[in-house]
Specification:
Structural class: alpha/beta
CATH topology of the largest domain: Aldehyde Dehydrogenase, Chain A, domain 1
Radius of gyration: 29 Å
Largest sheet: 7 strands, mixed
Helix content: 40-55%
Bound molecules: nicotinamide-adenine-dinucleotide
Strand order of the largest sheet: 9-12-13-8-7-14-15
Distance between the termini: 89 Å
Shape: globular
Number of helices: 19
CATH architecture of the largest domain: 3-Layer(aba) Sandwich
Number of strands: 17
Strand content: 15-25%
CATH class of the largest domain: Alpha Beta
Number of domains: 2
Length: 501
């Protein structure tokens, strides 16, 4: 066994011991740990903002809103609902269970030790949001921040660890070797956020121990832009969404589908929007982030160089500063190189199409995306996209706006992921919903009548007809049987009864 393997083995076994002591069993203890994370977010707000700025040049407003506040809201939601989430939920009973006075329910129980493996683009949000759900559900969590966002990873290792007990919530830092060694350990649930490629690595490792997984992956999120839309307004919404975190967002707009006529109007409107938002020099704007590292800068540059699209907007680049301004490519063909992999950066291809039907066919011909966007004032068009395209989410007239709405579970479908989270969905993701049936000890006469051998025709007939009935159907059935039995006792049949009256 390698030293990394034995290191990870001891991390997981300490967490399992802590879990087995029942430390997260109570409502009070879970509330306490949730509060500790909130305290970390409040007390270390400036350190978080600084780390995000160092890793991604993230503007302070974006850090406060999309990293700190979104996690604090998730914690508040969990705290406000934890008692009801933890409660056993009654399950409906069929007639015979009702009659016997049995009770049935679903009891959420924690899996045990779970791992949360996070990516670099939202190092606080994408690490702590699942951790909040896992703690609310009563699990111990091995937390693996991304090595790519190095400053945030150091913050987890050096500061975050002071806020929570390390046996229950160890932080594992490092890169692929550490993650690989961690994945070799047997845990009770794996929650992974990152690329589809690594998602397969994670799922293979999970299969070894039959560990359940949630995979929050990526993909190419399309936008269809209808010619009846207010193009200036839509350009504002497209540009602000595409430029956030320099396009390094899993649900970022990857490409636009629209007619050639809309394309021309959109490009003119996007130029205006860029000027409004970032001034004359995008690089100097405090509202625009940076590419995370040289490797990704190079990846994006190569992607751009290999495209046959026309560069319609280029807001400049500066490798030394990891600055890459928005680049809009027009007249991009369906088989262009930028249309193969997820872009995950500030490059925006526009693929001309004839109409909404062609856009739907185009989206259907690709892997299912994490989100699809349709910009149209026409309800029928929006409904058509909702009906005939498949994606983790569908948002009309904006992009990424579904993220802060905790009532909408967030996750992918097909190659963009397995499972979902946010709000109550997170609690459910990290809980096994155990079926509980408590049978009554006093109704033994029913078993003797209906169930035990030697079987009687009357008993098994009655059971056959009532076992799967609702209580109302069952009462009617038994009343009918009672009437028939009484009539039979009196020597009357339903026919004779009818003929006499
Ligand atoms: P990343 O490189 O930081 O990897 C994520 C984690 O996987 C890290 O902790 C890393 O250590 C680990 N890892 C990387 N390669 C590995 C390997 N070969 N074996 C084992 N572990 C490995 O992040 P990334 O994958 O570059 O993130 C970007 C991708 O994540 C994009 O595709 C994006 O769409 C997706 N993403 C999805 C969501 C979502 O919520 N669905 C959110 C953010 C990002």
């Amino acid at each position: 066994m390698s030293s990394l393997d034995s290191q990870m083995e001891s991390v997981v076994s300490r967490a399992r011991e802590a879990f087995n002591t029942g430390k997260l069993h109570t409502y009070e203890q879970r509330m306490q740990y949730l509060k500790s994370i909130d305290t970390f977010l409040v007390e270390q707000e400036q350190a978080i903002v600084d780390a995000l700025h160092a890793d991604l040049g993230k503007p302070t407003t974006e850090s406060l809103l999309w990293e700190v506040q979104i996690c604090r809201s998730e914690i508040a939601l969990a705290q406000n609902n934890l008692r009801s989430w933890m409660a056993t939920k009654p399950a409906s009973r069929t007639f015979v269970y009702h009659l016997a006075g049995d009770s049935a329910g679903l009891k959420p129980e924690p899996y045990g030790v779970v791992t949360v493996i996070a990516p670099w683009n939202y190092p606080i949000y994408l690490t702590l949001m699942p951790v909040v759900g896992a703690i609310a559900a009563g699990n111990c969590v091995v937390i693996k921040p991304s090595e790519v966002s190095e400053n945030c990873s150091n913050l987890y290792r050096d500061v975050f660890t002071k806020y929570l007990p390390q046996d229950c919530f160890p932080v594992v830092t490092g890169g692929i070797p550490e993650t690989t060694a961690l994945l070799r350990q047997r845990v009770d649930y794996i929650f992974y956020t990152g690329s589809t490629f690594v998602g397969r690595v994670v799922m293979k490792a999970a299969a070894e121990h039959l560990t359940p997984v949630t995979l929050e992956l990526g993909g190419k999120c399309p936008v269809y832009l209808d010619e009846r839309s207010d193009i200036e307004m839509m350009a504002d919404r497209v540009v602000s969404a595409k430029c956030m975190n320099a396009g390094q967002i899993c649900v970022c707009i990857d490409y636009i589908l629209c007619t050639r006529e809309v394309q021309d109007r959109l490009i003119a409107a996007m130029k205006k929007a860029l000027h409004k938002f970032f001034g004359d020099n995008m690089q100097k704007s405090s509202c625009y982030g940076r590419i995370v590292n040289d490797r990704h800068f190079q990846r994006l540059t190569s992607m751009l160089d290999s495209s046959n699209g026309t560069v319609a907007i280029d807001m400049g680049s500066d490798r030394a500063d990891r600055f890459m301004g928005l680049k809009v490519l027009s007249d991009v063909s369906a088989d262009d190189s930028v249309m193969k992999d997820e872009i995950f950066g500030p490059i925006l291809p526009i693929v001309p199409i004839r109409d909404a039907d062609e856009a739907i066919q185009f989206i259907r011909s690709k892997e299912k995306p994490l989100a699809a966007y349709v910009y149209s004032p026409d309800t029928a068009t929006v409904e058509k996209f909702a009906e005939f395209t498949s994606s983790g989410a569908l948002v009309a007239n904006d992009a990424m706006a579904h993220l802060p709405l905790a009532s909408l579970p967030f996750g992918g479908v097909g190659q963009s992921g397995i499972g979902s989270y946010h709000g109550k969905a997170s609690f459910d993701t990290f809980s096994h919903h155990k079926s509980i049936l408590v049978r009554h000890q006093n109704m033994e006469f029913l078993n003797k009548l209906l169930r035990y051998p030697p079987y009687s025709d009357a008993g098994s007939n009655l059971l056959r007809h009532s076992l799967y009935r609702t209580p109302d159907e069952g009462i009617l059935l038994y009343l009918k049987a009672l009437v028939m039995a009484t009539l039979a006792l009196l020597g009357l049949t339903a026919t004779t009864f009818r003929s006499r009256h």
